[in-house]
Design goal:
The protein is α/β, with parallel strands linked by helices and 308 residues long. The protein has helices at residues 39-52, 66-69, 80-83, 91-124, 134-137, 193-198, 233-238, 250-259, 266-276, and strands spanning 28-32, 58-62, 84-85, 165-170, 216-221, 241-245, 283-287, 298-300, 304-306.
Length: 308
């Protein structure tokens, strides 16, 4: 019954380019372990790999403990004044607004560049300035009405792609970031972590394009879903990459094994975990959306594929 075949529309979505042996972006990555086992070190290494592959242009860190961990992020050119955020009830709303502002600025820059090229062409043709349209000239007038003949600039104008944004949430369990139902002073519901996780690929909508900037998300947490400060279900359901460290809490490992139960059996999961975690700072890396050329969705750390 070929009349009922699913027809996939053509998409203009462009994947972020990474090396063949590295992961797809955008990602939602979770690192789970008890304190002092290497969550922040491993996630910062992951971010540095993105940066080395020109797949990280802005890093936002939401953490109450950044000052203690700042040394992990050396080399990533973090704007500590604007991009290191203390977690509170307004954090998620700020992130959504910030990504939209970045998208608007990116589109405004390209519109201005198009107009600049047109103006430059007309000026070089030596036509009288009186014959250049007011609509074009007004784009390059300063507050006093003088014509500014300088090429428009933009923070990310050196890139040949839209800015790629990564956001790390470190030690935010138990903070207002994971709270839901918060409202502003005028009664409007504030964006929450669910809004960011579910729509992470679609935040920062572009003008007149079926594209968005999107963002990659990283969570460093001590518990998976047990206890009062467990990970919100929304995050667990949207994970694309998972780092599982040495853990004496077998219940937590069983919970993770069940999450990937469609790929391997519980016995296979524990076998993979034991083969991956050989030292205190090792982890089992699980890629739930591997590239076609990857021989396995499991790795020991980032460097060694493991076959079930």
């Amino acid at each position: 019954m070929k009349d009922y075949n699913i027809q996939l529309p053509k998409s203009n979505w462009k994947d972020i380019v990474t090396k063949d042996d590295w992961i797809r972006l955008h990602t939602i990555t979770l690192a789970v372990s008890r304190p002092n086992t290497g969550k922040t070190a491993s996630l910062s290494t992951m971010l540095k790999i993105h940066y080395a592959q020109n797949a990280l242009d802005r890093l936002i860190i939401v953490s109450p403990t950044y000052d203690n961990n700042a040394h992990y992020f050396k080399g990533l050119s973090i704007d500590e004044e604007n991009d290191v955020v203390e977690p509170d009830e307004y954090t998620c709303q700020w992130i959504v607004d910030e990504l939209q502002q970045m998208a608007d600025e990116y589109d405004d820059y390209h519109e201005k560049i198009t107009l600049w090229k047109l103006l430059e062409k007309q000026l070089k043709s030596n036509i009288p300035i009186s014959e250049i349209t007011d609509e074009l000239l007004i784009q390059f007038l300063d507050a006093d009405g003088y014509l500014i003949l300088e090429k428009p600039t933009y923070k990310y104008s050196h890139l040949n792609h839209p800015p790629i944004v990564h956001i790390l949430f470190d030690d935010v369990q138990g903070t207002p970031v994971f709270a839901r139902g918060k409202k502003s002073a005028d009664g409007v519901r504030l964006k929450c972590i669910d809004d960011i996780v579910i729509k992470h690929r679609h935040l920062g909508k572009r003008k007149n394009k079926q594209q968005s900037l999107g963002c990659s998300l990283y969570f460093a947490c001590q518990t998976y879903k047990s206890g009062n400060n467990g990970l919100p279900r929304c995050i667990r359901g949207c994970i694309k990459h998972l780092l599982v460290f040495k853990n004496k809490d077998e219940k937590s490992l069983i919970e993770i094994a069940e999450e990937v139960g469609g790929e391997v059996t519980r016995d296979q999961f524990f076998d993979l975990f034991e083969r991956a975690v050989q030292t205190d700072h090792d982890f089992l890396f699980i890629d739930l959306f591997p590239k076609k050329n990857h021989i396995s969705m499991f790795r020991r750390n980032f460097t060694e594929f493991l076959l079930p």
